[in-house]
Amino acid sequence: MSRPRSRFRRLILPRRTAVVLIAPALAVSMAACGGSDTAGPSGGKQRTVVIAVPADVTSLDPGLASGSKNSLTLVREFYSSLTQFDRTGKLVGDLATSWSQDGPNAWTFELRPGARFQDGEALDARTIAWNFERAKKDAKLTAAQRIVSAVTGVQVLSPTEITFTTGKQTYLNLPGLVSGWLFLPQKWAATHDPDTEVNASGPYRLTSFKPNGSVGLTANATYYGTRPALQNVRYRVFSDQSSLISGLLGGSIDVVPGLDPSQLEQIKATGKYTVGGVPGLRIHYLSINASKKPWNDVRVREAATIAIDRATITKTVLKGYTVPANRQLFSPTYNGYQKDLTPWPYDPQKARRLLKDAGAVGTKLQISLAAYQYAGSQRTSEVIADELNAVGFDAKVEVLPIAQWSDKKATDATAAALTYNGEASPSNSSAEVLTHYESSVIFPTSNLRGPQDKTLDDDIVRAWTASTPDEQATYVKAATDRINDTFRAIDLWQQPQTFAAAKDLAYTPRADDLDLAYEIGWAE
Prior knowledge:
By secondary structure, this protein is an alpha+beta fold. It has 15 helices and 19 strands. The protein has helices at residues 69-78, 125-137, 145-150, 174-177, 186-189, 241-250, 264-268, 298-306, 310-315, 348-357, 377-390, 402-408, 430-434, 454-464, 469-485, and strands spanning 11-12, 49-53, 83-85, 91-93, 96-101, 106-111, 153-158, 161-165, 204-210, 214-219, 232-237, 255-257, 273-288, 364-370, 394-400, 418-423, 489-502, 505-506, 521-522. Helix 8 (298-306) runs antiparallel to helix 10 and helix 14 (454-464) runs antiparallel to helix 15. The N and C termini lie far apart (51 Å).
């Protein structure tokens, strides 16, 4: 049966390598961590390449992967999505070879034929529909909840064709939104534990998993795409910075993304590593808890905003690997970004006056941040605290383990006055970033604290459900301007995507902060 041709232009994407004919293989279960493979920047191309990660990996279920970049990285090594973003931030196909918008509220995706999981189970449109129903029934599967909230129905047209309907809304960024939604095999999941086991469809298979320790990978011979250059990889968790630096200086680690920029020269001096960095898509900012006095006074929030010398911090502490943000909570590549906005001025004299006028001189505050979560955050927070103190605040820095930091910022009652965050959209959408600033959101640990303006809520909803890019940009601008007018968040700079990589590896940092082994090659 034929389907009416879309009135919208179909986007055709270049296919990856031809689908490999697959012999059924047993799914890999959790194994003990370890192995005798040679690690570190020596040992030749057969060695296991070790990639350092700064936080625990507690689950391998792709449905639970939205809360941690380490989990997002790993599930993308193992599982397929319809689309994905390349290292530059461009949307490309993964399982989908093309997609089209069929009217204002339907999107159809064409799938590559013959894709399978490592045990031979088919990865087709029926599998995707089952994954949608799984997420719909279980609200804990946060990685797909934005899709569940946007999509009202799924229709399987054929094994290689599936349509999503979105009710009365267009959801312009649905092709980007589904990039963070990865698929489990239905039959396998009925008898296995996806928290600790993997049945891969992606570039790698699981060889070992030690929660809070390390995860071992090997190239997936039945992967439909280009075979990764690195045959064996181990992601290794480092709970403290001193052991990480010791590992680097001792040569037992191959790749470390997200290093403090001040450490790069010391690492480069070993002669074993290439180091560098570029401005990333994520925006670092301070979330203000306006639910507590005196932060409910806009003068206090403005004083804190203009007391920070962003230009000097990015040039000195962050070593020029990034640039100040332009009063926006998303990067220049996002729809609705205002090129004419400039960074907040550094004006300590006005900050002192505002704080005095508000009767808030001597206000005690904490800057709460997660250990090793964001590159350079501890050093920059200490400088920010000094600058706040110079205008009349009494600021201190609090460094917490990631889980404790996340729990603390989750409610008005427990959140610090200022919380150091990094904001980005998995779908590279300004509208999705702004949903974190609604008064009621799916991700409550990162939304603005304190009373919310209904007009801001309305603009955010309109941006999210706009029917054209121009309409979306209009509401993104309106919401951004209202956040700035009321000083609801203190944007700082684009995340420095810093790294150190063994010299025999070809490593290019991504615009986002996923650390994907299948994008790493061997140097010529």
